């Protein structure tokens, strides 16, 4: 398979750009993401029926 000149590194550059955009979005919505995850954790760990199901007998 023949690779054209200048096209060899495009995959790496595209991945880096996508990662940079995702990190930027995560930083912008950091508080909302933290609150969402904290709500899921609190809802799960504060529910006694879920804890009883997870308890090893």
Structure in words:
The protein has 57 residues and is mostly helical. 74% of the residues lie in helices and 0% in strands. The chain has helices at residues 10-28, 30-45, 48-54.
Helix content: over 70%
Q: Largest sheet, if any?
A: none
Approximate shape: elongated
Helices and strands, in order, run as HHH
Tally of DSSP helical segments: 3
Mean pLDDT metric = 80
| Strand residue percentage | under 5%
| Secondary structure tally: strands | 0
> In angstroms, what is the radius of gyration?
22 Å
Low-confidence stretches: none
The termini sit apart by 59 Å
Structural class: mainly alpha
Features:
elongated; 57 residues; single chain; mainly alpha; 0% strand
Summarize the structure.
The protein is mainly alpha-helical and 57 residues long. The protein is 74% helix and 0% strand.
Give the topology.
Layout: H1 10-28, H2 30-45, H3 48-54
